[in-house]
Structure formats: C-alpha cells, structure tokens
Specification:
Oligomer: single chain
Number of helices: 6
Largest sheet: 5 strands, mixed
Strand content: 15-25%
Number of strands: 5
Helix content: 25-40%
Radius of gyration: 16 Å
Distance between the termini: 11 Å
Order of helices and strands: EEEHHEHEHHH
Strand order of the largest sheet: 3-2-1-4-5
Structural class: alpha/beta
C-alpha cells in the first residue's frame, strides 16, 4: 500500500500554531510548525519533513495578554527571528506541494489536536497573504477524536503519556514540541490494528 491509498488520496500534514488569542480573524499567528507525514516500505506512517517558523503579528493584530502569558512568547524578542505570514506559509506550502507530487496525493489534509483551531488560523493567514492553500478547506483529522477512541483520553499530554510516548511539560505549548508529539501520536494510532486495516 502506498500513502496515496491510505486516506482517500490525502497527504497528512500535522500542524500546530501558537497565537495571540482565539479569533483567527483578529488575533495574530505567532508560531507555526508543520510536519509532513510519509509511509515506509512496511506501510507504517512516520514524520518525514518538518518546517518551523516564528511569525510576525500582522499589522493591526489583536494581542491578548492572557494568550501571551499562556504561551510565553515574547513578541518583541529579536532572537525569535520571526518572519511574515506570507514567507512562512509560502515555504510550508511549497514543501507540501512537492510531497503531494512525489506521493501522488490529490490534496493535503491537516492533522491537529483540536484541528479546527489550527485550520482556522491557517486559512485566515493564507487569505491575508493572498496564497493558495494545499489543504482541504474543511476536512481535518483531529487527534482529539482519535485519542478518545484509541486510549480514552482527549488531552494531548494525557493521551501521549498513556500510550507510552515521552512527554515533557516544560516543553509543551510551543508549536514545535506540540507538533512533534502530535505527529508521534497520529502515527502510532494509524499504525495500530484498531484503525485502518
């Protein structure tokens, strides 16, 4: 079986974002990580390509102090090396499109923990940047639901810990770490005998 045959021709891409609030139209995208999933010769999923960016708030973006306190992002820190939404998404989309071609998939599908949230921010930033997204516009694969089915947990840290994947609370709530762990969770669930065959 090839990757294109596993999920209706979709290429799974794990996404996590950190933001300055909960409203994708008014609040800033501050960090984004994408991990493109592939499949090995035995038919097992694995994280293949990772892209990670700190992002400059778009002009006029609302910055909620409670959100910044939660995610610990110092927007004005020059060592963030933040880039524009347009650059971050352009480079992510270019890599996804390369993978779509090499894997012969028809479209990418966003995988996330509470995926509707991540997709909403990606769609809003894509629109602001005037780009064409490779993602399905409304379908997602949500690891909240997969975790509930697989191990009876919906919280990412609890699901990860329950199935034996290492979890560090000190690293949590960064897009990079959360995407890495979500991709491990997704691959383990999809490679199990419960889902798929």
């Amino acid at each position: 079986m090839r990757l294109k045959d596993r999920i209706r021709g979709y290429l799974p891409v794990v996404i996590d974002v950190e933001t300055s609030g909960f409203n994708e139209k008014t609040d800033a995208l501050l960090e984004i990580c994408a991990i493109i999933i592939s499949m090995d010769e035995s038919g097992s999923f694995y994280p293949k390509t990772m892209l990670h960016y700190h992002v400059k708030p778009f002009e006029g973006a609302n910055i909620e102090p409670s959100a910044i306190k939660f995610n610990g992002i110092d927007i004005d820190n020059p060592f963030r090396l933040a880039v524009s939404e347009e650059r971050a998404l352009t480079e992510i989309f270019e890599e996804i499109n390369k993978a779509l071609k090499s894997e012969e998939c028809s479209r990418s599908i966003l995988v996330g923990h509470n995926a509707f949230f991540d997709l909403g921010f990606v769609k809003a930033a894509t629109k602001r940047a005037g780009l064409k997204s490779p993602f399905h516009q409304f379908s997602t694969i949500d690891t909240v639901s997969l975790s509930a089915l697989y191990c009876g947990e919906t919280v990412l840290a609890k699901a990860i810990s329950k199935i034996g994947i290492e979890w560090d609370n000190n690293e949590a709530h960064s897009a990079l770490y959360d995407t890495q762990k979500t991709s491990e969770l997704f691959c383990q669930i999809f490679d199990s005998k419960i889902i798929g065959d």
